[in-house]
Amino acid sequence: MELNDAKELFFQYLIVEKGLSKTTILDYEDDLKFFFASLRDVKLANYLENSDIDYFIISMANKGNSPKTIIRRVSTIRSFYRFLQDEKIIDKYSDKIELPKPLKIFPSVLESEEVEALFEAVDMSKIEGIRDRAMLELMYASGLRVSELLSLETKNINLQDNIVRIKGKGSKERMVPFGDFASSYLKLYYNEFKSLNKYKNSKYFFLSKKGEPLSRQFFWKQIKKYALNAGINKEISPHTLRHSFATHLLDGGADLRLVQDLLGHTNIKTTELYTHISTKRIIASYDLYMKRK
Prior knowledge:
- The chain is mainly α.
- The protein has twelve helices and three strands; from the N terminus they run H-H-H-H-H-H-H-E-E-E-H-H-H-H-H.
């Protein structure tokens, strides 16, 4: 049976038996078009083999298609092969085909100089600036999640010993230290704003000018604003400082288990994501400085 005849028979099955929409059929047709184009000398559906799918996967990867696109197209081809098998057109189809794994999306990380530029972009002449600088310093110094930072209660900050008590995911508590830089800005914010009588009743440490807890959306906008002012072109979010904290620790030789504890990760595999970033940075630095003139 000709490939196009087999395709038409397949589409009739999808429409009549499976009841798929026209939009889905068009997607299937698009996927089969790319598959047929990859076939070298195969003209008859009877001669299709598993190796043709393997070759299709390789050709798509070589052309720069994402794993997500490859997986979707191969899913269509598998359905086509299963149909051909059910119709006794082929008899040697196997589902045991290795698909590419979806790419891990590594979080954006700031260089140390970019962190400093971000902090310096804050207007310290305003009380909101002092608050924002304290928040940024603490987040980078302790690797807190955004939710942990914004829900931080005054009673859980020890400004004498530079430690915060955090209730993380699953109500799991951890003690996280922070450095003198963060401590100095936290004290400045406390003395200039949080210690005032009208704000003492709030249990939350970081507040708006009206004495209300801050939202994630507000903090996200503030970071975007400071990044723009600092000339940082990377994709940046509140979590970027947490990612940078972990990566810079590992760059400096910190133990993976220590970083896991500081971040509050239950599974060390989550923390291992940062080792990939750190390794890539080391390799990039090596390639930069070891290129022969």
